[in-house]
Amino acid sequence: MKAPVVSRRVFLVSSAGIAAGTVAAVLVKLRSRRMPASASSSAIVPGPYGLLRPVADLTTSLPLLMLPEGFEYRSYSWTGDPMTNGQPTPNLHDGMGVIFAERRDAENELVLVRNHECDLTRPINAPGRYDTAIPDGESMPPGGGTTNLTFRGRRWISVEPSLGGTLVNCSGGVTPWGTWLSCEETWIDYTARGGRRHGYVFEVRRNPVETTGKAIVDMGRMEHEAVAVDPDTNYAYLTEDEPNRCTFYRFIPNDRSGTPGSYEAGGRLQAARVVGQKNADLLTPSLGDLHQLEWIDLQNPDAQPGALPADFPNARGKASGPFLEAWSKGALRISRGEGICYHAGKFYVVDSTAGTGLFGRRGDGEGAVWEYDPKAETLRAIFVAGSQLVADNPDNVTVSPRGGILLCEDGEPVTDQYGPGTRVLGLTAENQSYTFAKNNVWLDQSKILAAGKYVKPGDYRDGEFSGACFDPAGEVLFFNIQYPGITFAIWGPWAKGNL
């Protein structure tokens, strides 16, 4: 092994990681020790940062968010805003991650990649293109993809397209080698109508012109949600968002060099199975539930979706090809796999509808968070929302460099002491939730004109939060509101709490 050359970028990321790793190790131990012995679900508690109040955006002067005292933010790249190539910013802002960080003089410069969960619509004119055809009978080609955003100091610099010709790019995940894996949440097949198959994962580079637009077929064809990579092994762990017919996946690459394009060389897809329990049902977890996992190989990651077997519980409709094979081999089942992220040796996996809903429907609850330990091969329920007020269908998840877990809601606009609106929730070390941010986007035509924006008027307080991620130093939190499509950068007194 050659002696490492320490660049400013590596120093920035590594030094933040060392400090975060120390704190995270303590928080993980505390979380383990403080697991309530009798409670089957979590509760909502006052947050360590204090009460929320409307805060004016430093860019538009509009009170778009409710935040605790001391926090500030700038909005950027609203739907319709011009990008560097002159094209309007696509809508449906979704998953997002920081793929590059470097110290430039007295400021940090960051590059983020952002998904756009678009269907057939105006295409993103990006260097990396996958499917450019307009399917027979349609008027538009696949309009999903990604954009790259640059942030320096406390200001936004630019946004440019990077991937196009994909569909329903929901979430994804960053890689240890500084790229973004963008996931299609669909399995539609346009090959009979002049287009291509969809339902894949794509790798996006920091320099958009280096993005290939090549589908990583061996990562499976399914309604992908998110992916996270273990930096110790370069294995990728994936979630699937298909209600009550999805499992937990692992991808072992043929090329484990950990370099841009290495996943495009293919690999082996696996599914999780609970040891000694065929087709374990994890739809309704209780706080503290613990399962031992093992992994089973899947032979055809590109298999077509098909009908559920007759003996499948409440069998209706179809499932992805990988899930059908996984189920036939005893894989576990969760309700809806959503966000996943890696931190300090553990993975945090969100099941957005875990629990019991109306009329006793299993897998139709308010959601849960699982902690997966790849070394111990255990899966443990660390957060279970017993009511909508505790959490309303959490989706994207991130962990701050200090070890605090943050969840983006994708449910109804919860009405609490601050009024109606979706929320960004923090988790305490005792596995309880608290409200860190609340959606306050309510726009009339005069506000839109004054801000110089191109979105339609409306009450967007039910808009989904998505794409939450921190910079490596833990100074800035980024996230999106999917409707009307806005990206935010937030900073403030993080040391007052655990984020």
List the helices and strands and how they pair.
Layout: H1 8-33, E1 52-55, E2 65-68, E3 72-76, E4 93-104, E5 107-116, E6 128-129, E7 144-152, E8 155-166, E9 169-174, E10 180-184, E11 201-204, E12 224-229, E13 236-240, E14 248-253, E15 267-274, E16 290-297, E17 306-307, E18 318-319, H2 321-328, E19 337-343, E20 346-351, E21 368-373, E22 378-384, E23 394-399, E24 405-409, E25 423-427, E26 433-439, E27 442-443, H3 445-451, E28 458-459, E29 465-470, E30 477-481, E31 486-491
Strand tally is 31
What level of helicity do the residues show? under 10%
For the record, give the distance between the C-alpha atoms at the N and C termini, rounded to a whole number.
36 Å
Largest sheet geometry = 9 strands, antiparallel
- Mean pLDDT comes to 92
Q: Quick one: overall form?
A: globular
Question: Which structural class best describes the helix and strand composition?
Answer: mainly beta
Strand portion:
35-45%
Poorly predicted parts: 1-37
Whole-angstrom Rg = 21 Å
Number of separate helices: 3
Strand order of the largest sheet: 12-13-14-15-16-22-21-20-19
